[in-house]
Amino acid sequence: MSQESGVPTFRDALEGLWAEYRPEDLATPEAFRRDPKRVWDWYAGRREKIDSVTPNPGHYALAAMADHATRFALITQNVDGLHQKAGSRGVIELHGNIRRVRCFDCGRPAETWQDDGRHVPICAACGGFLRPDVVWFGELLPPGEMRAAREAVLDCQVFFSIGTSGLVHPAASLAYEASRHQAVVVEVNLEQTPLSSAADYILRGRSGEVLPELVKAVWGE
Fold first, then answer.
1. What is the chain's alpha carbon radius of gyration, rounded to the nearest angstrom?
2. Which of 39, 52, 104, 208 could form a disulfide with 56 if both were Cys (CB 3.0 to 4.6 A apart)?
3. What pTM was computed for the model?
4. Do strands 96-103 and 109-110 pair parallel, antiparallel, or not at all (unpaired)?
5. For 60-110, how does the pLDDT look when each residue is reduced to its tens digit (9 = 90+)?
6. Domains of the chain
């Protein structure tokens, strides 16, 4: 969904000055320990790019669905906060949010920070370096968010898998869990994925086009 708003995927963004780097050079705890400034600058650039884009019609369609549904949970692997900007509430962010930062050492979130462009900002509580509040390779998903996602999946009637490759676990397992608990599984994707053979319905197309049409067909708007 973020790609349709102009947010490049992590690997697509490894271009220009960053083309020589691998994901493990920029998105692991080890990379941050080796060179915190390089990692901080990478994410600062990503954050600046994300600040320049806006939600697309797919984001707004999901917010509209939540307004109509008796119960609705939005689980995302995206870290850009565009769902919230479109009006979605209570978003379950499995991979964190790039707009937030926290201390690498003590884990305490920082409401504000000073970035002079020369040094990595430090934690006001312990003096440790601040890092983006996203899940890096090799890190576990936040347990509270994963628990909330599983609870929503086990209690849902319809599960939409939207624009995801279906390859990144454990998030990719949620659709199968929903199916095992008798939910109707709908895949919205331009391409076939590992989930396609198990989905009850497949809507081929961009989420920014398919979801608004779906809202219009179901609720007449």
1. 18
2. 208
3. 0.92
4. antiparallel
5. 999 999 999 999 999 999 999 999 999 999 999 999 999 999 999 999 999
6. 55-95+141-221 (3.40.50.1220)
